[in-house]
Amino acid sequence: MALLWLRFALGCYFVGLIYAFVALTRTSDLFSRVAFHAASLGMVFHFVSLVEVFLSGQIVWASVHNSESLLAFFSMTFFMVIYAIYQTTSPGVVVFPVVFFLTFVAAVDEQPVLLTQFVSHKGWLIAHIILIFTGYAALVLSFGASLVYLLQERRLKAKKASSLISFLPALEVIDQIGYRSLLMGFPFMTLGLLTGSVVAVTTYGRVDFLDPKILLSLLMWAVYMVMVFTRWNSGWRGRRAAFLATFAFVAALAAWAANYFSTIHRFAAS
Amino acid sequence: MRFQLIGVNHKSAPLEVRERLAIPESRLPDTCRNLAAYPGIEEGMVISTCNRVEVVTHTTNGHADLRGFLHDHFHLKPEELDPHLYEFREKDAVRHLFRVASSLDSMVVGEAQILGQVKEAYATARAVGAVRGQLDQLFSRAFAVAKRVRTETAVGSSSVSIASVAVELAKKIFGNLHGKNVFIVGAGKMSELAARHLMAHGCASIFVANRTYDRAIGLAQKFNGQAIKFDDLYSTCDRADIVITSTGAPHAIFRREHGEQFLARRKNRPMFFIDIAVPRDVSTDMAKLDGIFAYDIDDLQQAVSSHVADRHKEAERAEAIIANEVERFEARLSTLDVVPTIVSLQDHLETIRQAEIDRVRGRLGQLTPEQEIAVEALTRGIINKVMHTPITTLKTAAKESEATTVVDVVRRLFNLRDKDKETAAQPVAKKDEIGTRR
Questions:
Q1: Site from B172, B269, B272, B306 to mutate, A interface, most A CB atoms within 10 angstroms
Q2: I need a surface site. Which of A101, B78, B128, B432 has the fewest CB within 10 A?
Q3: Residue B260 at interface with chain A, using a CB cutoff of 8 Å
Q4: Chain B closest CA to A78's CA: distance in Å?
Q5: Is the CB of residue B269 less than 8 Å away from at least one CB of chain A?
C-alpha cells in the first residue's frame, strides 16, 4: 500500500516537474498555483505512504528507497516552509525535479530492508537518518536558491524589460532563502555526521576514514562549511556561491551514490 | 485658428540642449511677458519641464518668428538649437498640445505629472496677462481632453515614471525597501523625485553629495538626510544600497575599482545604481561587476517603454480621442470664426430695417400700439426669413474647409468689412446673442 500512495505522490510531483521546466521560459501565475496545489496534494499522499512504512513496525528508513522517499519529503517540507515565509514557488524550479527524481527512484519497486539488524543502537541510527536528511534537504534548497539567484541576477543585468515583470522573487529574498537554508542545514549535517560516526563506532568499533562513503561525506561537509564561511565572512553570493553550492550538491550526490560501494554504509538490499 | 507652437522634448533634443532652454520658475512670468510682446504674437505661454520646453502662441497672422524669439531669449545660435526644434501650426499645434496635456507625448506615457505642470504654466501666463481669449480656450479644452483621456482609457492607470520604474527595479533587487539607504550624488530635479519615491516606499535614510556643498545641505534638509562632502563620496558611498547619480561630470565618476571597493566593504551585498546622468556616471566595466546593478537613463526608459507597450492598445484609444477632440475644437473655433460675420450681418440688416421704418413712419401717421407691434413683427419676420439661409450656410460652412470663402462672399455681398474688428473682441458673448435674436 505504501508504494501505491507513493506513486500517487509521484504523479502530483510530476506536475511540479513540468512547472519547473515551464517556469524557466515563461511566467504563469495560474500554473504556479496549480503546481503548488499539486505538490501539496503530493505531500499528503507522500505522508500517508511514509506513515504506512513506519507503522509496518521496523525501522525501515534505512532501506535505500525509503530513505530516498524520506529525503524527498523533507525537501518538500523545506519548500513549503519557504513558501509560507516568502510566498514564492520559485525554489521549486530546482526542488521539484530533485524531489521528483528521488520519489521516482523510491517508487519503482519494493525493497527488503535490513540494515538495522547489524546496528546495536537504534536510537542513534534514527537520529542520524533524520539529522542528515534534514541537512540534505536544506542543501538541496540552498542549491536551488543559488541557481534561482543566478537566474534573477542575469535577468536584472540583462536589463530586459521582462526583468520587471518576472515571476522570480526579489534578489535579496532569494539570497535570504539560500542563506537561511544553508545556516539551518549546516548544524543538522554536522550532527548527522557525528551521530553517523557514533553508529559506526558502536557497530564496527571504529570509523574507517578510507571508506568512500565517509570520505565523500567529509568532503561534502567541508564544502558545506566553506560555503557557510565564505558567505558569513565575505558575503559570497551570485556566481561564486552558485559554484560552491553546485560543488556541494555534486559531493552530496557522490556521497549518496557511495552507498552502493561502501563496505560499512551498506543497505541490506544493495 | 492661428496657433503656433515650437519646442524641444526628450525625443527631439538631448539633455544638454534641454537644460540650456529650461526656464526656472521664478523667471517664467517675465518670459511670458516678453513672449506676448514679441512682434507678431498676440498671446503666448511657455511650458518648461525637465523633459520639454514648449512655446505656445496665438499669432496675428500665423507666421510669427518663434525661432527668432528662442534665439534672442536664450542667446543661442540657430545652428545649436534649430536641429532639435519642432514646430507645429494650427491644427497640428492643437493636436500636439492635447497630446502633451494628456501625457501621450511624455517620456512615460500616462504619467500624471505633466498635466499639473501644464496647468501651472497656464496659470502663470494668465496671471501676467499673456494668455487671454484664444489660448484660454485652447488650454481649457486641452485640460478637458486630458481628463477625458484619463477617465476613458487606461493609459494613466498603471502610470509609471522613471522614478517609479526605479522603485520597481529596486524592489526586484532588495524586495522590501524598508531600512535601505539612498545616496544622491549630484542634486537635481530628477534625482530628487526618484529619492522622494524611494523614501515613500520605506527607504530609511538619505545621503546627499554635491559639488556645491550648500546645495547638498539644502537637499539633505528636505529629506531630513545627511549632506556629505564630495571628497568623501568614495569613502561613504558603500553605506547606501541605492545610489542615484546625476552629476554633470564629463566622464564616469564611478569606475571598476570603486565598485570593487564598495563591494568588499559591503561584504558583497548588492548595490543599485540609478544613473540618470548624461554622460553616464557609472562606467560600463563597473556595471559588469557581480553585485552591482547599474541602470542608466536609456535602460530605465526601456523598462518604462515596456509598460507602454503593454498599454499600446490604450494609447491607441487615447490617440483616437485626441483626433476626435482636435476636430471638435477646430469646428468650434471656426464656428467662432463665422460668428463675427453673422453678427455684423444681423446688425447690418437691423440698421436697414430701423432706417426703413423711420423713413415710412411719417407717411403712416399715428399708429395704435397694436399696429406698431404688427409693423415691427412684419419687418422683423421678413429679415429673419431672408437671413435664415445665409446664417445656416455660414454655420455649416464653418465646419468645412470652405468657411473662409463663404465668409468672404457674404462680407462682400453685404459690404460688412468694417464691423468685424469690434465684434471679434467678444466672440463668446456674441454667440449667445445670436441665439436670442433668431
A1: B172
A2: B432
A3: no
A4: 21
A5: yes
Q: What is the mean pLDDT of chain B?
A: 82
Interchain proximity A173–B175, CB inside 8 Å: yes
- Report which DSSP code applies to A169: P
Please, which residues 193-252 of chain A have a Cβ atom closer than 8 Å to chain B?
A: 233-240
C-alpha cell at A96: 521539484
Q: How far is A111 from chain B (nearest CA, A)?
A: 47
- CB contacts of B262 in chain A (<8 Å) are none
Q: Name the residue among B299, B245, B226, B351 with its Cα closest to residue A164.
A: B299
Residue range A139-144: mean pLDDT, rounded: 84
CATH code for the domain defined by B3-159: 3.30.460.30
Contact (CB<8Å) B306/A173: no
pLDDT averaged over chain A? 78
Q: Give B169's contacts (C-beta < 8 A, 6+ positions apart).
A: A156, A163, A164, B272, B274, B293, B295, B300, B303
What CATH number is given for B162-300 in this structure?
3.40.50.720
pTM (2 decimals)?
0.57
Q: Give per-residue pLDDT as tens, A192-221.
A: 888 888 887 877 777 777 777 788 888 888
B50 as an active site residue: the answer is: yes
Q: Are the Cβ atoms of A159 and B172 closer than 8 angstroms?
A: no
User: What pLDDT, in 10s, does the model give residues A25-68?
Assistant: 665 667 778 888 888 999 998 888 888 877 776 555 556 677 77
Per-residue model confidence as pLDDT tens digits over B166-223: 888 888 889 888 889 999 998 877 788 788 888 888 888 899 999 889 989 988 988 8
pLDDT at residue number A64: 65
**Does B293 contact A162 at a Cβ distance shorter than 8 Å?**
no
Chain B nearest CA to A232, separation (Å): 9
Residues of A in contact with B176 (CB under 8 A): 170
From A165's Cα to the closest Cα of chain B, the distance in A is 9
pLDDT number for residue B306: 66
Residue-level pLDDT at B432 = 40
Please, what is the end-to-end C-alpha distance for chain B in angstroms?
26
Q: Residue B195: which of B204, B182, B186, B185 has the closest Cα?
A: B182
- The ranges assigned to domains in chain B are 3-159, 162-300, 331-437
Contact residues on chain B for A169, CB-CB shorter than 8 A: 175
- Select the residue of A161, A162, A169 nearest B175 (Cβ to Cβ): A169
B169/A contact by beta carbon, under 8 A: yes
Number of cross-chain residue pairs from A and B with Cβ atoms under 8 Å apart: 62
